[in-house]
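Morning!

This is the sequence you dropped in the shared folder:
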Amino acid sequence: MAQVAELKKRRLQDYGFHLEYRTRWSDNDMYDHMNNSVYYFLFDSIVNTYLMTHCKLDPPTSSLIGLVVHSQCDYLAPVGFPAMIDLGLRVKKLGKSSVNYEIGVFERGIEEVKAVGEFVHVFVDRESRRPRAEGMTATMKEQLGSLAGSKAKL
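The structure's back. Tokens below.
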């Protein structure tokens, strides 16, 4: 992951796909900010929303599934209820069977990024749990490829 100074330069427009999230009272923890586990819920949500809406992936029925092999988050500033959050998604690296995503977490109306996450999927056959020889589908490669590269340095 990039150095903190580089991460702090991220802006919502650096990401090719956006999703909004209205925080809930239950998202806050005893420290009065959004609990770290909620960030991972959000990462999973934006990635799978993109896969389902743009890549034609239907997780319950698809013979190709994405397994998370790595995730991490750099927390830069707190967010808490009742904030509206804008999530940004981009692809840092696209392989034959794997994709490395970056997710930016922004509080609506505030330019500075609150957190930057990384999420890595390896797409495998549902039954064998092994990557297919052909890797991802052509649609997935094309649509994920459209999120690769951006204004910010990866």
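Headline: The first strand starts at residue 17 and ends at 22.

More detail when I'm at my desk.
O.
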